[in-house]
Amino acid sequence: MSDDFNMSMRKFLKQVGVTSQQAIEEALRDAGDTSGKTYQAKVVLTVDGLDLEHTVTGTLSGS
C-alpha cells in the first residue's frame, strides 16, 4: 500500500470519527436528559469498488 493511499485512508477515518462524535453529541443534546440510558450504536462501512462491508457495533451509555 502506498504512503499516499495510507495517508488518505487515515484522513478519511479521522473525518469519520470526528463527524460521528459531533453528530452523536448533537443528538444527545437534543434528547435532553440521558442519565442512566443506554443506546445501541452501529456503523456500517462500505467501499465502492471493493467487496467490503464492515460493521462495528457498540453501546453508548449516559452517566
Bulk shape: elongated
* Tally of individual domains: 1
Structural class: alpha+beta
DSSP summary, beta strand count: 2
Strand arrangement within the widest β-sheet reads 1-2
Order of helices and strands: HEE
Kindly state the mean pLDDT as a whole number? Answer: 94
- Strand content is 25-35%
* Structure annotation, total helices: 1
State the separation between the terminal residues, measured CA to CA. Answer: 42 Å
Helix content: 40-55%
C-alpha Rg (nearest Å): 15 Å
Enumerate the spans where pLDDT stays under 50 for 5 or more consecutive residues.
none
**What kind of sheet is the major sheet?**
2 strands, antiparallel
Structural summary, described in words:
By secondary structure, this protein is of the alpha+beta class. The protein has one domain (3-61). It has one helix at 3-31, and strands at 38-47, 52-61. Strands 1-2 form a two-stranded antiparallel sheet. The termini are far apart.
Key structural traits:
alpha+beta, two-stranded antiparallel sheet, 1 helix, 2 strands, 46% helix, elongated, DUF6494
Write the layout of secondary structure elements.
Elements: H1 3-31, E1 38-47, E2 52-61
Antiparallel strand pairs: 1-2
Pfam family, one: DUF6494
Task: Provide a brief overview of the structure.
The chain has about 60 residues and is an alpha+beta fold. The chain is built from one helix and two strands; from the N terminus they run αββ. A hairpin with a 4-residue loop joins strand 1 and strand 2.
